[in-house]
Amino acid sequence: MTDLLARYAAFVDDVLLPLEPLVLAHPWTAVASQIDTARQEARHRGLWAPHLPAAFGGLAMPMAEFAEVSAILGRTPIGHYACNVQAPDVGNMELLLAHGSAEQQARFLRPLAAGQIRSCFGMTEPARAGSNPVWLDTTAVRDGEAWVINGRKWFATSAEGASFCVVLAVTTPGAAKPHQRASMFIVPTDTPGYALARNIPVMGHVGAGYASHGELTFTDCRVPASAMIGAEGAGFLLAQERLGPGRVHHCMRWIGVCDRAIDLMCRYALRRETAPGEPLAYKQVVRHWIAESRAETEAARLFVRDTVAKLERVGQRAARDEISMIKYFVPSVMQKVLDRALQVHGGYGLTDATPLANWWAHERAARIYDGPDEVHKDAVAKHTLAQYLPPRG
Ligand SMILES: Cc1cc2nc3c(=O)[nH]c(=O)nc-3n(C[C@H](O)[C@H](O)[C@H](O)COP(=O)(O)OP(=O)(O)OC[C@H]3O[C@@H](n4cnc5c(N)ncnc54)[C@H](O)[C@@H]3O)c2cc1C
After folding, report:
1. How large is the average pLDDT for residues 313-317?
2. Which residues line ligand 1 (CB under 6 A)?
3. Which of 113, 355, 380, 384 can bridge 56 by disulfide, Cβ–Cβ 3.0-4.6 Å?
4. Atom from ligand 1 closest to the CA of residue 158
5. 119-229: in CATH 2.60.120.10
6. Distance in Å from the first CA to the final CA of the chain
7. For residue range 235-270, what is the model confidence (pLDDT) as tens digits?
8. pLDDT band at 206 (very low <50, low <70, confident <90, very high)
9. What residue segments make up the domains of the chain, in order of their start?
10. Rounded to the nearest whole angstrom, what is the distance from the C-alpha of residue 73 to the centroid of ligand 1?
């Protein structure tokens, strides 16, 4: 494993970091061929799809090892994409691997695993609080051998250019339990009635291709019964199952962001002088920022590793508090570390000469997607307080 991690690190240093300035300066679609070349190199070096089994061209890494890889790839905004472990595809791959039918795996998972197509995930809706994903307006109504989907989704990351969308729609409005109302469907994006209405601008960027966030409309969008993933009414549970490991992947990626920010902060602090012979690194405040950032990043890394160990030992449900805790703890560390790194760089930090400004803008969403901080904190507090309540009699 140590050797493999060293190979991932060398790939980032030798191939991805030199490509980074180009990617930061252009829309994703304008540098697609250069990024594809990097993807070819990832394959050539045996680094492709670490999360997938060998039968799907991957390295069959257990989650603990994949988490370490994720921290290395997280050091650059293109790391995960280069190795085909980028959200939302990684979550869709894991979902189809665990719950896809043989036909769904052959038609959708296989080309996704090979990097021939991309996908997106449509759960959040403009008219309903995304924080409460059992409350959806989009419906799927059975009509003979088909399901007819109507509704609107937004913030579907990577929707532009995606070949299919995994969609959550209400199939049993009268279900006894709210989390049994929805089912999950695969909707090919060339299905009549499916439309990408627009790319939503996020933090000043319209986004393109993989880096887009789409608003989607479904108008009498008809898919065959075989488009359903898993059982009818299981949509919410499948979405939760998809998001659990997804939160771990994100957290380790954010630790990679912290590692790189500290690296950039140290290099610049040594290079930049405020007067002849007086580098920023001599200033006590900068030294403290470096020291605090290192301590907080290491604490976050150990917390995520510990969560992965628990998740693998006892399963997602029993580890739900730890998953929630890392989901709000790690972004808070990342924000602090990025802010210090930006401050050390002065005005230069706000340019696109480093990935810091890009991360500052786009990783702010970390405190919102896959459950806003407040929702996770509320859940942890609820489960903690429950231990102090008298048993119900
Ligand atoms: C960059 C980005 C990418 C995304 N990608 C996808 C994607 O690919 N697919 C997809 O389906 N969705 C995606 N989303 C949507 C994301 O999952 C939602 O934004 C998120 O679930 C929050 O839902 P909302 O925006 O509707 O906020 P709301 O639910 O309206 O909440 C607004 C705010 O209210 C507060 N709040 C909400 N509930 C509670 C509570 N119970 N207690 C206390 N406070 C509360 C929180 O502070 C929250 O930020 C993405 C979002 C962003 C920003």
Report:
1. 92
2. 88, 121-124, 129-131, 155-157, 202, 213, 365, 368-369, 372, 374-375, 378
3. 113
4. 8
5. no
6. 52
7. 999 999 888 888 999 999 999 999 999 999 999 999
8. confident
9. 2-100, 119-229, 237-386
10. 26
Quick check: 215 and 197 in contact, CB under 8 A?
yes
3-state secondary structure of 83: coil
Which is the closest atom of ligand 1 to the Cα of 168?
A: 11
Burial class (CB in 10 A: 0-12, 13-18, 19+), 386: exposed
Ligand 1 centre from 351 Cα, in Å? 28
Which run of H or E residues covers position 82? Answer: helix 79-82
Nearest to 301 by CA among 242, 243, 258, 362: 258
Find where tokens 């449900």 sit.
Answer: 317
pLDDT, one tens digit per residue, over 345-366 is 999 999 999 999 999 999 999 9
This prediction's pTM? 0.96
pLDDT attached to residue 256 = 98
Residue with the nearest Cα to atom 14 of ligand 1? 155
CA distance 391 to 386: 9
Residue nearest to atom 37 of ligand 1 (CA): 131
Model pLDDT for residues 155-192, shown as the tens digit of each residue: 999 999 999 999 999 999 999 999 999 999 999 999 99
Q: How far is the CA of 153 from the centre of ligand 1 (A)?
A: 13
Question: CATH says 237-386 is which class?
Answer: mainly alpha
d(CA 4, CA 2): 5
Residue 367 Cα to ligand 1 midpoint, Å, equals 9
Establish whether domains 2-100 and 119-229 are of one fold. Answer: no
Architecture of domain 2-100: Orthogonal Bundle (1.10)
- Residue 391, pLDDT > 80, answer no
- If you measure from the C-alpha of residue 372 to the centroid of ligand 1, how many angstroms do you get, rounded to a whole number? 6
pLDDT tens, residue by residue, 55-97 = 999 999 999 999 999 999 999 999 999 999 999 999 999 999 9
